[in-house]
Amino acid sequence: MSRLQVxxxxxxxxxxxxxxxxxxxxxxxxxxxxxxxxxxGLAHARLEPPFFKAQxxxxxxxxxxxxxxxxxxxxxxxxxxxxxxxxxxxIAEEAIDGRVxxxxxxxxxxxxxxxxxFLENLEITAATIGGLPVPFTRGNEQLAxxxxxxxxxxxxxxxxxxxNGQPELGFIWGFxxxxxxxxxxAYTNCEPLASHTWWPCKDRPDDKFTADLSFIVPDTLIxxxxxxxxxxxxxxxNRTLYHWRERYPITPYLxxxxxxxxxxxxxxxxxxxxxEMPLTYYAYPEDLERAMQDWAFTPQAITFFAQTxxxxxxxDEKYGMAEYPWSGAMEHQTVTSMGAYFxxxxxxxxxVVVHELAHQWWGDWVTCxxxxxxxxxEGFAVYCEALWAEHLGGPDxxxxxxMKKASDHFPGSVYDPNFIFNSTVYRKGAWVLHMLRGVMGxxxxxxxxxxxxxxxxxDSAVTEDLQxxxxxxxxxxxxxxxxxxxxxxxxxxxxVVWDILAYSITGPCTVLIDINQxxxxxxxxxxxxxxxxxxEGGEEFWTVLWDSLPDQQFLVTVPAVPESLQIDPLDWVLGxxxxxxxxxSASVDGSDHFGEPMGLDVTLGAPRPNPMHLLTAIPxxxxxSAAVDPTTSPDCLELGIYDATGRLVRLLxxxxxxxxxxxxxxxxxxxxxxxxxxxxxxxxRLRGAGLLTPQAQSKRLLLLR
Length: 705
Fold this sequence. Notes:
This protein is of the alpha+beta class. 19% of the residues lie in helices and 35% in strands. Strand 35 and strand 36 form a beta hairpin.
């Protein structure tokens, strides 16, 4: 049940300036169930991939920003449909010999050239369109093949380019040559903007195509790539051609090659409808035994994500992992490249296997439409680490992993980040999803993710697309959430003071909760905060406080006297609760909650909070006989607010309490004329028939401004 649904069930309790929270039954919230097991989350490597990438970028002069030109709308005038790519790594020269054939669909009028992203240091040896040579120009990491005639929208064109040379590294990396245990390895790693350092392409995430990918390597090596292996051909010179076919749409940065003397092992994933899919793993021979141990749980993880988000997106092909010389890992479509680094650690890096597997849904099936939206890839994958932990160890493990991802400071915003591989994208992005789940409830949240995935399957999406689906399922706008949490910066911090205002011995009591919100960003955050009361006798009472202001106060009717209060005890909000102070906190008059009786049948309580900023409540308790006595009934009582000179500032009328014996006087710090009263000491004096003189029935109150 969502918090919206809960709200519809709750009548208004107080007609006053306080905020009335929603009351939520603890048992009705799936993610509030008691923890299961004692599993404490996934082990974390010493250097996580995003921070390795940031370190590399700084060392190679990329600074804090990724190049932004390619984030603009596509202006090429064509849609990439299919690519035939043939590359031979020349290991001794650390060079490549390549040929690419693109089939494209013209989408705009007056297209005079086909433009591709391609680094200038690689030499072009031939360029044809429709089999005929064409002139071309180069510059600014672009290649333009000039068309012999202007095509019409809807025309299909085939362009071929032959090239060779030594590829240079780009952002982040590209095509590289290394050795492991004396054996050569050729590999690629191209997210976000390094594909064009080794083959001509439209190097952007929002134009997908199908692909035939062929690699020629020495016959002592195995070349691994996307999709299914169509054929292997023995060539002269002790070489072998590996032909892979990717029938599902793919984007350039997910095209992969890893080639070395792999040792292979296999497993099987049984899909949700019984379809069997091969799992093929490629490890260095020296790491085979460790890889077989560390990757063995993959079928179970695929099943879990398929049940959560929908069937594995590439069920007609494969999933696999291939070891490569990297300090991170990369979610290449259908075959994750897994850094050898993780197989050298003393503990298994399950979280990396889970993270990259989750990308097959969030990053490969649905790809971020621009690099400004990369949190749709990385934030999702990080949150999937926590979901896997929850699957294994219950809610306690979910919270444990999420708290390890929390920080007091995330630089910049989740959308359009300062650096696309920073902790804000990965960890705060995961927290955004976690908080949305807390707002919407499990059923609506996961239903929305399944709709989002199927609606943008094998395509790209941007943040607005996700928000639209979430709002569709939730039934309400979510601008109030996305503006500060996704597009804005910072996070809230909370300080909480609460007190009992009025109660009857055997019935409900009224509690005042005062929440002070600080923010590390420019805006305050509107968030639902769970409040858990532990009552006398050990029972629990839950409610939800929608906090959105620097200082906000809530009146809550609790079924019995509370002994303690926790705010956000299940950690659904990225923002520390610095302290929760309850009854017994210091007050100006130093009295207990209710003092000695002011008359025969009426007791005046101390103002809470005191000192006050915006609002204070002064409780009054009547004996059962006084409650029905017309001379001392609540309707006959009034409260005067006097300044230090004795001048009457305001007369207050009583607000009914949770029982006939209880009542409240509420003061908002304003005079009878509606002016803001100045800071200083004030006196609260109860007046009414049957009471002692007003001067003997006073409490002292401090107003702060």
